[in-house]
Amino acid sequence: MKYLLATAILFLSATSFAAKSIYKVDIEIESNQTPKTTMSVMVEEDSEGTVTTQSEDTTTSFKVRPTKTSVEGKDAIALAMNFNHFSDESQSRVEHSPHVIVPEGQAASIEVGDQWTGLEYKMKIKATKVQ
């Protein structure tokens, strides 16, 4: 009985401390009013990573949370994102929260537009498991 209890405790301890994967997330953003910007962030699975870039009059921030999943039995990554763009010149802020599921190592393309500001964005996002 002691052996069985010790085995059960060891199994539960090992599964609760299982290492999470780390992903490199590459983000490419282009709009009809700003030049193409490329960003990368390393982020642990089920955690949020943030990357921010600034030009002379705009600030672009991107948050991403990768989660391991599968599509039709193949490994995939669900990417929950929050994209925030602020322009000093026009004092406008655009925020979008697209979510995509993409096969691991492949890129997803997303296009979003904001009717109020007239901004249109094209984004490519790719998550690659590094650990």
β-sheet strand percentage: over 45%
Oligomer: single chain
Structural class: mainly beta
Shape: elongated
Q: Kindly, what is the distance between the CA atoms of the first and last residues, rounded to a whole number of angstroms? A: 38 Å
**Major sheet:** 5 strands, antiparallel
CATH architecture type: Beta Barrel
Give the number of domains.
Answer: 1
SSE succession: HEEEEEEEEE
Q: If you compute it from the alpha carbons, what radius of gyration comes out, rounded to the nearest whole angstrom?
A: 19 Å
**Unreliable stretches, pLDDT < 50, 5 or more residues?**
1-16
Treating each run of at least 4 consecutive H or I residues as one helix, how many helices?
1
Task: State the CATH topology.
Answer: Lipocalin
Helix content: 10-25%
Mean pLDDT: 78
Number of strands: 9
Q: Give the CATH class.
A: Mainly Beta
